[in-house]
Amino acid sequence: MPRIAMVVEYDGSGFCGWQYQPLQRSIQGEISKTLNVVLREYVGLVQSSGRTDAGVHAAGQVISFKVDSATIDCFKLSHSVSSLLRGEVAIIAAGYVPDVFHPRRNVQFKEYCYRVENRKTPLVLSKKYAWHVPEKIDWKLVEHESRFFVGEHDFTTFRAAGHETRNAVRTIYDLAVVSDGCSVEFRIKGTGFLKHMVRIIVGTLIDIGRGKISRSVAQLLLDCDRGRAGITAPPHGLKMSRVRYEDAELRWLG
Amino acid sequence: MPRIAMVVEYDGSGFCGWQYQPLQRSIQGEISKTLNVVLREYVGLVQSSGRTDAGVHAAGQVISFKVDSATIDCFKLSHSVSSLLRGEVAIIAAGYVPDVFHPRRNVQFKEYCYRVENRKTPLVLSKKYAWHVPEKIDWKLVEHESRFFVGEHDFTTFRAAGHETRNAVRTIYDLAVVSDGCSVEFRIKGTGFLKHMVRIIVGTLIDIGRGKISRSVAQLLLDCDRGRAGITAPPHGLKMSRVRYEDAELRWLG
């Protein structure tokens, strides 16, 4: 059967998360429903490169689904879906892909961005997309400690307690701390991420920066103990920004 | 009488603009009302460095008002005002200033930022703070033409038709076009701006870039004819970002 892939932007504020939940408003559910209506066929639940938690945003999530026809105008389809989910979901790009494609397979890297606003006064213009941290942060220390995440590690310390997958070994290619005044962005690139992993990494780095944790990241990684890491940073500061595939023909997806 | 100045951030979306209007929700009105309540005295309508139109935001608007006492805790006052106008207005800084201070006088420069998103697909994450322009833009041309605004000019072509002030001569110190992918920011610094001036400048540059206007900015400035300029860019892409005063003691304001 022919298969279509799409790059999707969404505002996670009004959803229970990516994953379909009966009686709740999920991104997976709303996109799948809209595709059924527009295509007038049952496409089932669309696949994605990874679930995002409730409140987490995306600028470049990749999704995929099978269709009956190989001659759908993907531009028109994107336009219709974006219009019906106006303001909350937009299809950035769309096209046919090989029928064996799965958005979670052959990922070269995924990139997440986490935004922190480090100032005493409450947020106004950035309140929906940044975590407000009023305490003084030692940013030099945060930057120094952030480097220890890069590489292949067992991330047991940095995963949600109620996890499913057994293997906690993941590779982080890059973790950049980019600041513009009191606005700081953490840009994390890796093969894949465990549940809450990015949010616990950011929460721990902030807790180290504001003196709530004195253990180093190197020690914490060896501890393999979630209890020693910092808080899970709130979801609204996080954005899945990009998914890159190994296959050169899939480069348009990220 | 003692006088206080404040640096204010606000989201213009829910207001009829800066200026007080009876029976409408203005930023000037809401801040003044809140100060009356918190200070338990009548401070009247607060002054500002300039009015912003309905829908225009601010990250660094400067306001000022007289108070009875010279011993108010400005930090507490800011906190109370920000709390009462939660999410829409935040006081970034506050302190006593000389009683002759007026936020529109002795301004060294004011800075505005205008954000454009130049992409075909609809906006989601930036929709409240950027103008969506789907057409192809010749950004090289836009950058080239933007330089002609810098300097002292008669801005009659670039002011709202229903204006009040007679003299249309203003000085622009700098106009930078900063792009990050399809997101482009116009940063304009000047002594003062006429009604709708920044929005007409941006609208005209975009109209030149998308081929709707073939006249150059140099010609348009000489025309002194609003009819020849481009559209007034929508308000929600605009943000008053900073007001800088000549007096060294007032540097904390911007």
Description:
The structure is a homodimer of 254-residue chains. The first copy, chain A, has 254 residues and is α+β, with helices and mostly antiparallel strands. Helix content of chain A is 20%, strand content 29%. Chain A contains five helices and ten strands, in the order βαββαβββαβββααβ. Chain A has helices at residues 27-39, 74-84, 139-146, 197-209, 217-223; strands at residues 3-10, 47-48, 57-66, 89-97, 107-117, 131-132, 151-154, 169-180, 183-190, 238-245. In chain A, strands 1, 2, 3, 4, 5, 6, 7, 8, 9 and 10 form a ten-stranded mixed β-sheet that branches. In chain A, a hairpin with a 2-residue loop joins strand 8 and strand 9. In chain A, helix 1 (27-39) packs across helix 2 (74-84) and helix 3 (139-146) crosses helix 4 (197-209). The model of chain A has no long low-confidence stretch (mean pLDDT 96). The A-B interface holds A 9-11, 57, 59, 78, 82-83, 86-93, 119, 121-125, 127, 129, 239 and B 9-11, 57, 59, 78, 82-83, 86-93, 119, 121-125, 127, 129, 239.
Brief write-up:
2 copies of one chain form a homodimer. Chain A has helices at residues 27-39, 74-84, 139-146, 197-209, 217-223; strands spanning 3-10, 47-48, 57-66, 89-97, 107-117, 131-132, 151-154, 169-180, 183-190, 238-245. Chain A is an alpha+beta fold and 254 residues long.
Distance between the terminal alpha carbons of chain A, to the nearest Å? 24 Å
Multimeric state: homodimer
Which radius of gyration of chain A do the C-alpha atoms yield?
19 Å
Number of continuous helical runs of chain A: 5
Q: Which spans of chain A of ≥5 residues are poorly predicted at pLDDT below 50?
A: none
- Give the structural class of chain A: alpha+beta
